[in-house]
Amino acid sequence: MTAMDGRSLTDCLKGARLIAHHRPWPRYQLDEAGWRAMIDRLAVSSDWRLLGLWADGVEVHCALHDDVDASIAVLSMTPTDRRFPSLSAVRPSAIRLERALADLYGFEAEGLKDKRPWLDHGRWSATRPLSLSPGKPADAPFTYPFLAVEGEGLHQIPVGPVHAGIIEPGHFRFTCTGETIVRLEERLGYTHKGVEGAMAGRTVMEAARLAGRISGDSTVAYAIAFARAVEAAADTQAPPRADWIRALLAELERLSNHLMDIGAVCNDAAFPYLLAEGMVLRERVLSANQECFGHRLLMDCVIPGGVTVDVTRETTARLRALVDGLRLPFKKLVNIYDDLASLQDRTVSTGVVSPALAHRFGAGGYVGRASSHGNDARKEPGYPPYDELDFAVPVRPEGDVNARLWVRIGEVRASLSLIGAILDAMPGGALSRPIPTRGGEGMALVESFRGEILMWVRLSETGRVARCHPRDPSWFQWPLLEAAIENNIVADFPLINKSFNCSYSGSDL
Amino acid sequence: MSLFRQLFRQLLHGPRAIPSPGPDGGALAHLAERLDQQARVKLGRSLSIRAVDAGSCNACELEIHAVCGPTYDLERFGIHFVASPRHADILLVTGPLCANMSEALRRTYNATPDPKWVVAMGDCAADGGLFAGGYAVQGGIGEAVPVDLVIPGCPPTPEALLSGLLALLETAGGTVGGKASRS
Fold first, then answer.
1. ipTM
2. Cis ω on the peptide bond leading into residue A92 (within 30° of 0)?
3. pTM (2 decimals)?
4. Of A192, A340, A504, Cβ closest to residue B3
């Protein structure tokens, strides 16, 4: 295949070489001309969304979503001399992913302007550690050349990696004129734990524990994504009851995170009352989690093949009481926010992300939805049991801190209703099914509270994980924070940052 | 003015924190009292903690937030989190020791005035946990800084965190420099 003439993604790939045993979406192998044709096509097709870009030591893979006919495909090419044509000019969301590919695999994206290392700080015990032939460790830690900012009266504020608050490590370089931020540049990678390398060679059950610790606040969503990818690779399915219990756990996770973060955003606008109240409500959810499922954050409850926890009659009653008890106090908190002009003065028109930018980066979650970009993996591509559930996905156009707060408020309401609906319709049956020992490749898209997680897994014939790539939603949200902060004052950075609440651990891998 | 109505109503109620039952009632209450006495004797009723994330998955941070929240209300025991290591008595370190964070952790330790103690929070901080052995992880945080106490768990519950801080007060034993009786 040399040209992509068709209208949709599926049309374009009709002639391409299909790889067997990649589920549920097809994977095609392209030669370099085909890969370039894909890039040309991306340049003119704003409805083709980049879902992820990763490698396995031999090939580079790119997952695309066609918004028009909702098709998904993975396109792969084998780099020649470790080089492959860059997607960064047509999809800026690929920039950091390509920099990470160079660090981890030594694959160089031709045409990528920004060649600075991203995850590799020159401190690992090997360079290109995941490639087939890892290199010697760097002689000394790298000095990172931040982008130059020129102009009269500019000054810089370096922050991190150890921050003043209780948050994850990362470095922020602010260039300011007076109080106003001219440019923010992020330098991340401090929490790189080598997740992809650690996954390889493990059994699916061991790897599932690891998947649940890629970003602890999204442990349920990651565990579901990993389980679904493994089930796809092994061509099996979890029993229906497991799907419903997974959704129940996922909504509890969404609820507990939003309850804290809504308050935490207000706390960063110097209004700690809502944080205190939000923490009380969150604690109710976590205590119920502990009582019903044995873990406050619900770690290790979801495994490939099903779930390890059941929903008994007592659990159902306990969770119903929890949901009923949360509605009124939450409503009161929302009323307080809605009443306080002085608080909204900080949040309205602060940290704006334009809808066009959110669309270009394919940002998901509340960051995308607060900027008119409404995709939600529960709806599209969708997965059970959400296809049988009726729920609203709040979308707003303003793109500011206030809009992100209201999207989250809407999601809390939706989750409260969903938990009730899931408990009502919970089917009976088995909790899990063994994973057959067979090789294959699987991919899953799962909606965490933060946005869409992409998980790709290759299983060996012995049923172990050969390769695994988790793509956190934050990959496509962190770059937007740099844009959102421009022309805001330094004092509003914590507020804007919290309204994004990107995961460091999830995107540092 | 729903805020003032709600605030006024809350003035009539007791605090939101888990109440302190009698001396025999439950681990948390027991801890609260022990911690209170110990803190008075050793540290003038005040203990300042600086949290450092050496590469955690952020679950430990969620539980640190919980312990600072109104339900567990760490501050009622005279313990609070500070923004700078220069103001801290204790470094509470989470996560496996990521190679990319090891220098930052050492520098933070060196910036903390003596006497100081290091608490490794969670299974990853103890020995690298699930992430040990890779090219990017150097093990537990003990590879970079001397650890006085390990609070196990994945993540440790807020009660375990409170309980661990009490154990630290006991093992630190009031020795200046803090390294005489490491656990």
1. 0.93
2. no
3. 0.93
4. A340
